[in-house]
Queue: 4 jobs
Job 1
Amino acid sequence: MSDILERQRQQEDMQKNDAVLDAFSMLVSGGRSGYKSVIEKKPMLFFCKSCKNQIGKAQKFCDECGANNDEPIIG
């Protein structure tokens, strides 16, 4: 799970980089200057592996069933 979170952090850092955003904007716009694209960021949702209730990112135990969620379901 830590690999997934690390990859998510890397993607967020790349999306904040102006050079990456400018290159993506040029690619999407067909080379038109001044075009700024909007990159949609979807939040990562975490679910209890026992009862499938949505839980917080760093939440170790489910509020509903009390199950230990060291590695929750990411969806």
Job 2
Amino acid sequence: MIREFFGATKEDIQSLNQNERKLFDFVVKHMEEVSQMSIQQFAKRMFISTTSIFRFTKKLGFTGYTDFINSLIITTHAHENNALPGVILREGYLDEYVKNVMETVRVTSGESINRVMEILDQHPNIYILTDDNTHTIAQYSEKLFLGLGFYAYGPEATYQMQSLTNFIKDNDVIIALSYSGEDQEMNAFIERVYLRKKPYLISVTRSENNTLESLSDINFYIFADVVKLNNMDITSSISIMMILEFIVYSYIQREHM
């Protein structure tokens, strides 16, 4: 029986070493592309041997490369078939909602969290940028970081964001929250900032390739079913909030160890 990729690998992700984890992240971000590759093509793309690829698939619990590819194929097709708002109306959506959260937890990299901790140890100013679907999370995040003693600011309007261009300094932190990763105003603002200063950019986006991820020093990717109703985006933001809480709680734990 062919298994959905994330369900099939959920018990084995933590056993991956650093190089295998990079392979896993590549698969998640390029799932449709990888699903069309032979083992030789995948090995060539990753600059490793076919033996290493085969060992990687076995470590994830698959019987071999074909089983691995079949799992990717049914997973990408399942995501394509999530016609909305039918995704909410279908039976078992609550299970899917919880599964998205759990998958986000499983793929969140401890290495990336540790890199964020090292940046926060420098006690930078923190600027929280959002798209239309994440404004309320910015306000909550601002409160969290202020409570930790950081200067934190989350602009609520475009003109407020644009006014920050001359205030952001080298080694400050921009936290950018956008599920699509394709908010044009946000990405254009970040590129303008990069022309004059070099802040750290930490982003939270979807798992698929996107512009914001490519601009980022550290990217956390999440899972959610895109939900639009009456031309309004009501995609769940719970996984975005969860990543921010991971960062804050990890910092609190680090400070009190």
Job 3
Amino acid sequence: MSTQMLVDERLVREGMEVLVVNLGYPKATKFIMNIGRGKGDSVKEFRNMWKGKSVDEICLEIEKAKKKGEI
């Protein structure tokens, strides 16, 4: 893997962390879905974003956001 690819990957990871910290998982997911249409590998992006979370935890985050009217 080239140095540039590692820098780009690190930048994407840091950006995702900023989104999740500031928006929470549900809004960060919605943001990525809206800006990422037609470009990149959204499956890979979501795997990285939701890494460490179980399906139940993800669903709970989404349900909480829905109840709050965030999504």
Job 4
Amino acid sequence: MPRTVAPSSPPSSPSSAAQPVSARVRSAITSPAGDGAERTWRINDFPDMSPQAVAQALSRLAREGEIVRLSKGVYAVKGSAAGRVRVYDARRMAGSRCEVAHPVFPAGLLAFNALTLSRQNTPRPVMSTTGTRAPRECEEAGIRVITRRPTAWRALEAEDAAILEVLRDGAIHSEYEPRDTAQVLVHHVLRKGRLARLLPAVRTEPARVRAMLGALLENSRRARSVVGRATLDEMRASLNPLSRYDFGQLGLLPTAKRWYAKAPVPW
């Protein structure tokens, strides 16, 4: 008897394949039974799912207005303490009824979250601004705002300022070892176009921040080739050789001593 072959089923479309992931992501974030509304979300919060499918699901939720994008790859539930922060970014306020005279940047744990150095959450987010007073909307949302950041920060993007905030904090909230923390920071610093914005702002930073950034860049072969010896020498010449700076976690870098870091305290 002739063999009969069952017709093959049509291949599933990418959208139907991603639908279960989309539903799981939506449920995890918006479920009233969980803590989704009190934290930030990233692709790596769903390690058992396809990163591309999770990215599409997060992007879809943002388009639908369920969540808001705080920075690249970082989201929060709209209306939550962290999610309301997104509203106050002055560079994206065109056409909005809410107008802010000065940009607002992630600080504290939010800065570490933005750079993927930490997955911790805080009940009271911290932001920073170049203004002299915190926006009233931020205060009403329970957000602590650090004021009077240098005016040079007005040219920065959110992740640019997050790098400076992490350095100001000595990278103390990083969940990585010092060497890995340095690699993550250098990766963010060397993103396309960032050095052109960051270096002018660094000149207005405290000497400790300039020293820490210099040690970071000099410790990386790739960064040394991108930045150039002349720029590193200029940054080091701006420091007082008699001073010693607290580098926090980055005090263990091989280049820290050359950039006048205090000797790290042994555990």
